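Quarterly update, task 2.4: pyridoxal-5'-phosphate-bound model.
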Amino acid sequence: MNKQAVLWEPSPNNLEPFWMGFTPNRAFKKRPRMIARAKDMHYYDMGGRAILDGSAGLWCSNAGHCRDHIVSAIQKSAAELDFAPTFQYGHPKVFELASRLTTMAPGDLNYAFFCNSGSEAADTALKIALAYHRANGQASRTRLIGRERGYHGVNFGGISVGGMVANRKWFGAMLAGVDHLPHTYNRKEQAFTKGEPDWGVHLADELERLVALHDASTIAAVIVEPMAGSTGVLPPPKGYLKRLREICDKHGILLIFDEVITGFGRLGHAFAAERFDVIPDLLTFAKGVTSGTVPMGGVMARQHIYDKFMTGPDHVIELFHGYTYTGHPIAAAAGVATMDVYRDENLFERARKLEHVWADAAFTLKGNPMVEDIRTIGLVAAIDIKPVDGQPGLRAYKAMENAFHDFGFMIRITADTIALSPPLIISENQIDEMFTDKLPKVLQSVA
Ligand SMILES: Cc1ncc(COP(=O)(O)O)c(C=O)c1O
């Protein structure tokens, strides 16, 4: 067919041309899970059937869906200021959002740099760390340390320090000079733990081993998720993050927390840094900053990091980094309105108060013959289900299909783990509905 001839004709509703990311395209297109609209705790499919949102979309809709205050802020901004550059120019909303975020962040995380996604946030943080050491006269510090089973998005920096094999093996050699800490999950020692496991603080000492191997003078930064989310929810062992902080301080290594998932109330605090009482040098955020409404991400930096760049002549750019859409006015307006909702509805505190109810409800699944482990922290739960012999991931995939089509429930899966992370507005009844009604039926359907 001549594509040119039909360019301006109404398009057929064809599922084929959209190449979907992180999705088995052929399976999806045979039996699509199509979402038409959303409100509060629910999605609605094309026929108007309600789907309970067990995953805040993709860990991002923390305030719930289509909240009036956020919707009007976006509409107003789209009509008032569609775009303004933030290279060499500025607009009020982005400064307002930076002030709100840095006031909310613990310690002296006093500066916010903006980008458009979690992946960009991770790469931005890694670049700032490298540039910081150079500005500090320690240009030999170029090595980046990530962690096995870590996820820092899909850009080259993020996959290099990340530790998910499927996200790495297809893409060549990636960044040079990267090493990894071991992951912190051990089922034998930690199975069925609520909150931080007692076992595993010693795994932070592996950083000393990497320092002994490479020498501190070659290491720029360590990046970890305070709670590893995408590889199946791995809460940090008690004391682990504090120990990492101590070792980084001892050796002049920057500590980066990737809080793309843990930011904005997911663990019952504005940031996991606050919950675990550890202040990183750089903290990435995305997702919840706009409650998923408009793409936005960013990095917060401590005072000493920013100060190191603020030298040289006044008219010279200090950091050669940024994106056209850095601090986009509509995203910034959405971000400010989202912070209003979090504040006015006390959503972080709400998550904190619900944590026990949530964990107890999740643990009602202990003893289900399909369930091998359950982990909970904040408003997050992971349920490891028995894999089908020789076909890893199949049972969880079917569980996701059945949850959507047969039980009106959106869940997130990774391998054979079901991860749940609902909007923070979830009610106790809805928690009950998820764990004592929908999930047992879903598990039964794939037994
Ligand atoms: C910890 C972490 N970092 C980075 C990302 C990537 O974010 P995005 O998909 O917005 O690029 C994610 C996404 O889930 C994440 O969980």
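Highlight for this quarter: Residues 59, 117-119, 122, 151-153, 225, 229-230, 258, 260-261, 286 surround pyridoxal-5'-phosphate (CB under 6 Å).
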